[in-house]
Fold these 3 entries.
Entry 1:
Amino acid sequence: MYEPPAVRIRRVYHALSLLQPYDIINGEKTRIGRSGDGGYVLLTQPFLPPVVYSFGVGDEISFEYDLAQRGCKGYLFDHTVNGLPYEHLSLSFTKAGVGVSDDPLGPLVTIEDCLYKNGDGCKDNLLLKMDVEGNEYGVLSAASDDSLKSFSQIALEVHWLHRLDEFAFCKTFIEVFERLNKLFTLCHVHANNCAPLIFVEGLPCADVLELTYVRKDLVNCTPSNTFYPTHLDCANDPERQDFPLLFFPFYPVHSDEKIDPQLAALDYALASLEANEKLRAETRLSTEQRRVSLFGRRLLPRSLPDAPSRKVQELNRLPTASLRLNILYLACHETLEYDDVRMFTGMGHRVFSVGGLSNPDAALPSTRPVMPRFYSRSWWAAFAADPKNDLLAKRISRDFAKQFDLVIVNHDPLLLDINLESFSGMPIIFRTIGQSNDHIEAVLGRHIEAVHVVRYSQKEVGLINFCKTDRVIYFAKFLSDFPRWEPGNRAITFHNSFPTRASVSVPSLAQYNALARVGPFDLYGFLNQTVEAWRGLAPAELQLELFRTAGVYFYVYSVPPSYTLSLIEAMLVGVPTIAPSAAAVRETLGDIADTCGFLDERYEVTDLLDNNPSLIWNTINEASEKVSAMLDDPVQAMIISDRLRVKAASMFDVEKIAPQWQQLFSEITS
């Protein structure tokens, strides 16, 4: 039976909304158990439950053992192991699983049975911990309200969220958590990074979550203003970065905000999805079929190899420096900083980045896999110990700077002003990132004899009022990071602060809202809560997954860059990208275009897209038509996808960019 996509998406959205966490006003959290898989966060003030019932322990009982050490008594159950890995006088073990009813023929117990056998049926300050690999839904459904009220807290691992697009499973999920939310408040959430971050009906979520609940009558709460993971959380898999939950329903909200407007905004974006889905329902082909013509031949070869594991040793693919340098790097953009430090250290150089990668003990606010080689504890200790250094202002003392062979300053020439004496006599590279204007170039001009200017685009060379150019080196990307595009049915956009940048963005916010009301558009980025199509934030790994599964990438341009990182990443994944022409930018912005420094000859977006008329729009009506055409023609979309990947690889592959930097380093340090 056909079910409209809008109905499915709203059902999944409702299910996820039941996982909205709250901050507890009159409580204090503590991590119990090991720093890794097996530990949970509980409320320990003003109370810690004196008895724990733990279902599903395996060979990892650090949580229960920690509680026993704190004076708690524990009843542990698991039918998959024969005993506990180590003993404690306060812990008892039963080889039995938890289920919906007693089974005289097998090792199965119910929550009610366990409570009454131990004389705890009438108590109200017990702790329930359950990690039973998907059986939690049946167990919680069968447990009576009276039994659940015996527990003051519940530490629960929930599984299989990837199945929320299944009607029966989603229905059960909603019933379980609507009932749980009537009795308890969700006060802590953590994604288990042993399972992936996923998308269900276009909505981001984690496949496995660790949840902590506290009974409603015990606490006062307020809508969450907490970013997860917190300092109490630890990655379940220590070899991978923990997952930031920077999306609905986990992203912090203020107490005067409500969730309903977000659901209303979702309706706008779904308005035309049903009609489009019906149109293509009977003719939809698999991804591989879309690559093959009716004659059985592949339309285009796979021009780029599928992305290998990130654990492939990238050091073997970068040029090794004959002279390894100590590089002082003044950062200005988190993603660019990460890419550059990863490249330079991969080439064998040592880098101290004054930015997000300075302090080895401070977590980078992203899911990018930070590597030990990015940091130097000795340099950080020396930097932090010198009162003349200022991380926020990027002020560097002479004593600290003289440890380095060269300096790279990104974007801001004022950093040359404040560090002029400290950098005296050192090779200095000033690197543009696309935001230069007459004022920035004028400040740069004061130091033009002391710096080597590296421009990020050929289009910046020779512009009026721009300083000299010593090199053009494009941004670098590691191709192995980027998955291959699989055609979807949504138009996605990444753009921060759309309302506050509306006057310098193309299309305008009004034009974008009009498109989103009649098409399947999703907007991600900071400070966009008032935009109808806003879907939240997208950390690095989620962003790549969104690119991979989108129908098209609808590019919103803000003056004055020649191109931006999001455009590069979309091309490397291969998602067809719809972008404005230079004429559309000038027409949309009017007089502001000249004021903000927009120049037709500086605009490189259309060149990167090979001036493909299927991707470039001149009017907003054309933009709408091109999005629809691309969504409706998967064969043409696949052809374009392969061409975009080849183009992006030819320009931004780190294996091509790194030797250009190495040549420059050799020239200016010899």
Entry 2:
Amino acid sequence: MLDDSDFFRAILADPEADGPRLIYSDWLEENGDPDRAEAIRLYVALRPVGPYEVMGVMVLDFRGRAIRDRLDAIQAKHARRWARALPKLRRYNEWDDCHGGLFDRIIINDLEAFLAQSRAILDAQPVSGFQYRCHGLDQAADLRKILGAPGMDRLGGFRMRRDPVGPDVARAIAGATHLANLRSLHLEEMGLGDEGAAILAGAGHLAGLEELNLRRNFITAAGVRSLARSPTLGRLRTLRLEDNGLGVQGAAALAEAGFEGLRSLNLRSCRIGPGGAASFGSWARLRGLRRLDLYNNRIGPAGVAALADAGLGELAWLDLSRNPVGTKGARALARPGRLGGLRALHLWGGDVGPMGGQALAAAEFVGLLAELDLGSNAIGDKGVRALAGRLGRIEFLRLNGNAVGDEGARALAEAGPFPGLVELNLGGNEIGEVGARALVESGSFPDLLSLDLSGNEIGDGGARAIAGSAAFPRLRVLHLDTNGIGDQGARALAGSEHLASLELLRLGRNPIGAGAAHALADPKHLPGLKKIHLQGNDFRTPIRKRLWRRFGKRGVTL
């Protein structure tokens, strides 16, 4: 008869695969643990969503946040019960927090105790992550002991982070030839440098690797060249090199890579610059890429043009945020016959401007996009008007910080309906009550789950329009910070019969008084509300207590 360990061995053998986890979740549900089954399924669902970055902070889109919130709630309720079934660790070693219904990471505070118990640990859970806190005089020797512990030969994945051992960590892994089953290797912020990258590139027993994460390791062009010329890394499908100083020569070195099976490449903040971007045209062996992250690399119009001409016909997800793309770069992306497979495009802070917005509107791929982030591009009302009629399949649309006024809001509303749109971000614009009413009265957003109108000028009238309309029957998140909303607007929102699904309401930096705060604290109002943000309002203690009583201290931001 099957037990947990049978499933753990399958998960441990291929920790990045979804199949073994989903099979285990089915078994759990059939054997009386539906909560843990759901946690595993949510974790699997969360992985392809992926984060994006805004001002240096990693965040999830609405879909990811909703999944994460549900997963966190299940784990907060049940993780302690699940942990009771784990073997008790000796001498201050600890199981890390629960991740997707499983305890796949361990904190080592006593090395000898871990070595004595390692096989039991690996039999109990599919552990692949190790945090080492008990450094001796020879960290490399300690790491070799961890890698050589009984049971480690079964590992399909190994991950360590923020433990700057330097090139010695690569030497330890290269010397652990029994780790031939590794499919994923994550070594973030370990101080590897070019020497460490070269050592890993020459480790023959890593020929089965499909995922390699070397984020923030002081790797330069020399290290990338070693990886690119490696005779053993040809099976890589995912390569993460973000936050390394690759520079011009590093980008050019990737043209030599034999990574013909590579599907995801992360080069964010790698200092590629215009010169490195010019090498995109020679990436012939990387034409199978489906996901490419080039965030914050000083890539200008010429580099964008080289990328568009590189023949990346299978590319589905592209991030060029925080690059000086400009109008010319937008035109290059939009040229016919280029990037026809794109389904997600992130150009936040790209200085595209109104003409660039209009150029993108004419691109062949725009009508097929599910995600479009044009935040902080000053495309204005003209850019929005041009784009709005082409976004029939859009699911996530971010137009924050674009000098969009009532005219642009009306143009977007009139271009609908947008039946698949679940997240709309129009924050930091110049939309007033008229624009807010146009969005509400159009009925163009029936499936919207998250609406961000923060930093606009909708006032009490706009708030009343939202509160009094059935236009957003599924809305869960509403951002209305800094909109000049007073007591009338806040009371209208609190008493709305149409916002029953709302879970998060942000009303910070609005002149809201005690009466409206009392209404918001009343549990009869907005029955689904779990969190409220009212920062910038100096409420007296009795009002604070009422809010805390309803939402808890974690559910209120003042």
Entry 3:
Amino acid sequence: MSNLHWLDLSEYVAIALAVVGSIAAIGSGNWIYALVPILISLILSAANRWRLNQNLRLYDRALERKLDAELQQQGEVLQQEIAQARSFATALVKQTMAAQKNSAPVALAGGQEAALEQKFNLQKQLMQSMQDRVTGVEGSLRDVVDLLEGTALDERVEYLERHLTQSQQLGIDSVELERPKSSRIDPLGDRQPEVDITPLFEMISGDLMSSDLMPESLTSGDLSGDLWSKPTWNLQQTINAHSDWVRCLSFTPDGAKLVSGSFDKTIKLWQLATGTAIHTLTDHLKGVFALAVSPDGKLLASGSWDELIKLWDLETGTLLSNLTQHQASVRSLAIDPDSKILISGSFDQTIVLWSLPDGGVIKTISDREPVAAIALSADGKFLASTGDDGTVKIWSMTSGEQIAHSKGNKHCIGSLVVSPDSRTIAAGTVNGYVVLWQLQNLENGQLPKIELSGTIKAHAGQINACVFSPDGGYLITGSVDGKAKVWYRGEDLSFSDKARSILKGDPGRSVMSVAISPNSQAIAIGGADGTIQIWQRI
């Protein structure tokens, strides 16, 4: 495509002749000298444009086939590796358990029993980390395949280029599964096994966990760890809600209803007691990214990839107005405690404050980065925003000026939340970290200070949702690794690096959105498969 084509050359010659003919026509008064070469140049130009268009189509098709082939090949290799790893793990565990069952009982000293139990706990933690990685990779691959199958070629290429660039910037390397060199195991010997097999129990059927196969010291008592502790949440119902990703969720103030927004371009209002849809709103032209319900329960705001914000009457489902200030997708919405101001963040690098219910523009705040997420403080005095650069910026709701910004994080942020007491900001990153900042100087009237307080490796994949409970006691995160995790906050406002509860639905089911009820007793989880899970606290 870089070589000069004969049509290009012919077009240049025709243009030159048209110029010469025009000069000759002016001198002689005979305009035929100009009209003929001009007509020829126009015909050649149209033919050349048609040729270039055909070449671009062929190039796009070739690129599409190449991308699909590479993705399919990588998926097959990954599935093969996972199957081999699980098969090998199953064989090793069965072999070890058989050896333990057939061997003569061995009286273990207190120190030996404690050491064995400590080794088991360590191996269990290592296995959980490995299982998180595998689940995250499976979920991410499934989401990428779904996305590539459902979008146009130019959107596919843009998506892949962007995420490849982000991966390179974050220094993420590909992960390869290494096959062990030996499968020989000595369960009670002094030699460290070459393969940590005990934590693989959760990947294998429950039969292998029966007490006749496990030493009593490892099955009795209270073993710490997420997979072994008593759950505090129970899956109450699963709603087949949408035909595409459930990208946003919001409870109504009374907690009796739930609003869901999806990439299938629809918004639905659900009666939770029955799991039935009250309204289905279909006015958006593209996927719905963000929702916000006013604290008085009267209005619903929705933001979409179609660059529009729509205001709805929540009771009747009637469209009230379209807000058209943004020039790119609307990624995040918030409504102040008085239900008088709507705030929107967009990829057009602006944050807009709108008056409610009329939808007039109050103020436009310009940022230097696409705004991926915003979060409003509970008192409505300040707004936090973030984007691809990993920085959290604090804006005054009164003046619209930036009054603080964070330091210490370089991970790209996709979700953001401010605690109800306005003292903690939590962000979920694209590589599975929860980043925490503490806000200071909130009472004395000075400019607030934001200081990094902690970083937790929370998930095996991108964190799509980050939500505080209304009482501020815990944080909920949802990720493409298929899990939503509950993190409890201590009296000193710090978080443990170990989740208290792990809400798991279907393995590999990516979590796209999370919401919590006003009474903190129910969690709604939106999935990439179009379902909504309702978890009840017990």
